[in-house]
């Protein structure tokens, strides 16, 4: 399977959506970490 085959299987819009989900997921995880680890110590 080459890169061209992957592009045909996964359209650009799907890659963009996946990237957005990953970024938002990490931001949400960082927010939860902040709430439970950093905020109570102040």
In words, what does this structure look like?
- With 42 residues, the protein is mainly alpha-helical.
- The protein has 2 helices and no strands.
- The model has no long low-confidence stretch (mean pLDDT 84).
Describe the secondary structure blueprint for this structure.
Blueprint: H1 3-9, H2 12-38
Summarize the structure.
The chain is mainly alpha-helical and 42 residues long.
Per DSSP E runs of 2 or more residues, the count of β-strands stands at 0
Portion of residues within helices: over 70%
Strand proportion: under 5%
Tally of contiguous helical segments: 2
What overall form do the CA principal axes indicate?
rod-shaped
Taking the sheet with the most strands, its summary is:
none
End-to-end CA span: 53 Å
Going by helix content, strand content and strand pairing, the class is mainly alpha
Poorly predicted ranges (pLDDT <50, ≥5 residues)?
A: none
How would you spell out the order of helices and strands? HH
Radius of gyration: 17 Å
Overall average pLDDT: 84
Main attributes?
single chain; 42 residues; mainly alpha; 2 helices; 81% helix; transmembrane helix
